[in-house]
């Protein structure tokens, strides 16, 4: 009867929505593709997912520039003769070599990348029957061939007095790309208010010398250049205190001045260490 069949369709839809296996899918919770890497690196790609509403994973696939190179399909092992990595299917794509030993369905490692590895990487997950709901995410990876070079640090004076201004320039010597430049003062990141953008390849550092800057008679400044999380080069410089005693005149880690010869200094340090080592005496 027509009058009773009309409300049945919405009811079924409602059931499909609240039914545990029917409503869900598989959701990508994290896509991690590094933006940059250098030739020869192993590049770690991560696509994490979670089941939603009782559905489970039907397939997880990786594509480079829309060409599939990796497929994980639970319960469907590759057949004899298929290109595979344990129970994952592999497909040939130029510039992509999957490191089979360390790759899992969530973490795929590309071995010894080349410029041909650059491209758009996409992870696709599809949930199980009956919806086969699909979700994709993508990110760009760029491979450079030029090694990261230690930056050029200019402008250091021979020595500094309190209240003097330290004015330094740090320039990247790389030509193929512009790495990130950061400044460290005594091994800590410099306050952003001290950093100046001089030009597209140079970062400046300007600060006024205060007593706490001197550690055992000098300020340790370094310019660090980095590309992605794995490549870092540092150019350090020591800025001595013009008015203070030489570095040797400072007592080990206290900053107090020692009016003693080097030998006495060492003896004093040793006796301090012994006191520390045997507090009961
Ligand atoms: C830093 O570079 C700028 C721009 O080239 C220049 O004007 C300035 O004198 C440089 N400073 C130092 C300390 O070299
Ligand atoms: C950075 O410098 C600003 C301005 O000189 C100052 O207000 C701020 O407290 C400094 N931050 C740190 C972490 O030292």
UniProtKB/TrEMBL annotation:
Keyword terms of this UniProt record: Signal
Ig-like domain: residues covered: 10-142
Gene3D superfamilies referenced in this protein's UniProt entry, alphabetically: Immunoglobulins
Entry superkingdom: Eukaryota
Residues making up the signal peptide according to the UniProt record: 1-25
Keyword Ion transport part of the UniProt annotation: no
Keyword Signal applies: yes
UniProt protein name: Ig-like domain-containing protein
